[in-house]
Amino acid sequence: MRTLRWCLAAALLAAPIAAHAGDVAAPGGRAGTVAISLARQTGSSIVITDRSLARRSVPAIRGRMPAAEAVRRLAAALGARAVATGARSWRIEPAPAPDPASHRPVRQPVVPAPQPPEPARPLPPIVVQASKRDLSLEQIPAQVSIIDGGLLELGGAGGTEEITRRIASVSSTYLGSGRNKLFIRGIADSSFTGPTQSTVGQYWGDLRLSYNAPDPDLRLSDLDRVEVLEGPQGTLYGAGALGGIIRLVPNQPRMDRASLAGQIGGSLTQHGSPGGDLSLTANLPAAGNIAFRGTIDTASLGGYIDKPEAGREDVNRTNIVGGRLTGRVELSPRWSVELTGLAQTIDARDAQYADRGDPPLTSTAAVTEGADIDFALGSVVISGGFGDLSFRSTTGIVRQDLEERYDAATGLSPDRLFVQTNRARMAANETRLWSPERGGFSWLVGASLTHSESDIRREFIRYEPPAPDASELIAVMRAVTPGVTNIVDEATLYGEASLRIAPIVVATAGGRVTWARLGGGADDVAPDIAFARSDITVRRTEVDVLPSLALHAELSDRALFYTRYQQGFRPGGLAIESDFVRRFDNDRTATWEIGARYGRAGSGASALRAASGDPFSLAVSLSHTDWRDIQADFVDGSGLPSTANIGDGRIWSASLSGAAQIAEGLRIEAGATWNHSRIDEPDLLLRSGTRQIPNIASFAGRIGANYSAEVASGLWLTADGWASYVGPSRLGIGPELGDRQGDYLDSGIDIRIGDERMGATFGIANLADMRGNRFSLGTPLSEDRDQVTPLRPRSFRLGIDRRF
């Protein structure tokens, strides 16, 4: 019988490369594809002798290791053995089964560097960097979702919406790209982007993306992964992590080889205008221990909202341009320095909301709305270790400028515009030291310093109709309204430790002490009012202590049961109300949670279906949150959004997610979340019929399917489809913001056919061309406020990707 062989990769680099440790980053998937990736990265030859082995799913293989170790891990994941056939070549073959009928020793053939048959080993751990001490997924007593970066680029590099559509417990407002607020697990405060800090912490590595500014909606290109931790994370992340954190983990520069990758695509939007996108990533080693990695992204999203009063169609085109450059220097095998610069600009030509009713996708506003958002980040990361200890220090600065334009028409001024600018600056450092588990004990200590400034300015602009030969409205009046500046300085000490109190039981305790000095003042306030309210500009100090406790049982290498208690907080600040500026106080959450996990799955995170190799996975959690002195936005007497403490709240939240391999190459996943919230009755709600926390649906769920098959030698077909439902919710707090929204279905599919180097993609978004209503706010100054934010109509994208 002829031996079946499938040659998966050939030598690409010089022989010495395979003998030395290098960075390996092979995404999970079929063993054949993973072997190709490993061979190219390590300059080796890997042959899998059995086709059935090549078709099996294996987890991702990442880290710094020699080629031999990478091959060993691949073989272990397959339950096979790796046989060295040369200095830089291996053969992976099935491990021989013992013959119970034979008791005589069998002479093994002599081969170079013989390897004994290896038994199947536990899958290599998925290290969750958001744990801040490199804990594996199986060691974390919380709900964790991980999305592989390659999956996020399948249909072209998108933004934060790629996360919200894959994880049911993550939701968002929909004012527009770069202007939205994110929420996790029902912890939502309001619809506007004012002086309050977000309830979700967003991080680029270890650096926070913003302090009290909206989601910058960065393009999710060239990422290793996205990690989402649900529930308060106050001990490790401090202020602004009431609902959880979202951590973007970029790919690091590689020292071993130069590479270039890119993709380009064009899109058509039904009932709208066309668009396109382009992404390029280059990796360039400059010396033996220095490398650079850069990415450029640009996208133009076609508009689909018409404004007949202004004589324009498809007005809401959005243009996005961004890029980043990272340089990495490896000072020694354990010490490195990494410098990153990142910038992105968003030009939203007009607003994406419409009037409720017919005709659809139409707004009666006569002025040009929209927004301009500029975001920039710079960071320096020093990593290393001392013996068993690991060290990491991150220093960075962040700048975010946001200008929003809203229709403010009245009967006497139909061409009036409201303009709000928010300029945010932040400088931060975080330094931590941690130890892995030794003798059943592990620990982490850290410190951080943060300085944040935000300045909000407002004005009304009235236009006059254009002359017959003019193309634009002319501004004839500007009325400046009061603004506000908030300054926050924070100093923090925190720590966490885990102790194995029984063979399968681990107890974890932590604490964080934050000293915050708050300051700021009013801008453009009349002198008499400023004197009367001068006390609000006086600095004040807050000290917050956030404890945490957790207990988890490792029932098996894949099963975990846990319970935990965690707190979170946000500092107070200053807010504008009509012609005045006043204080609002800090708010605080306390959450109890119980949950369990089996296998490697996390709230519908699609990447885990490939990375785990588990035929079945399940995760479930139940939590209760007490929220004191909730900071939220409302519409004041002048029709403008303001911020206040609206009372206390109670939130029950439950989530369920799972995945199953139902056929060769076909995996199904599903996730759902349920929330029940109630706000105590403050004066603000006396006229309101709702006490539900805004923007959070009682139920949301999604289902997804992934299929992969080899259609020809080396040519693979991959399809990723999904459908999600978001239940009804309320826009905000009080009678003025009680509009219903949500209760819609969205869906999409992305298909790729190609090999490791080149492929073609085709995608459809909003398969059923649903209208829906994502968000019932387009402008807070509309006299009737009868607005909807529809889904983007059915869109088609065709793209090509290429790697060199």
Automatic annotation (TrEMBL):
Residues 90-122 are annotated as: Disordered. Residues 111-122 have a biased composition (Pro residues). Residues 1-21 form the signal peptide. GO terms for biological process: iron ion transport. Keywords: Cell outer membrane, Ion transport, Iron, Iron transport, Membrane, Receptor, Signal, TonB box, Transmembrane, Transmembrane beta strand, Transport. GO terms for cellular component: cell outer membrane. Residues 44-95 form the Secretin/TonB short N-terminal domain. Its main location: membrane. It is found in: Cell outer membrane. It comes from the Bacteria. Pfam families: Plug. PANTHER family: FERRICHROME IRON RECEPTOR-RELATED, TONB-DEPENDENT OUTER MEMBRANE RECEPTOR. This is TonB-dependent receptor. It comes from Croceicoccus marinus.
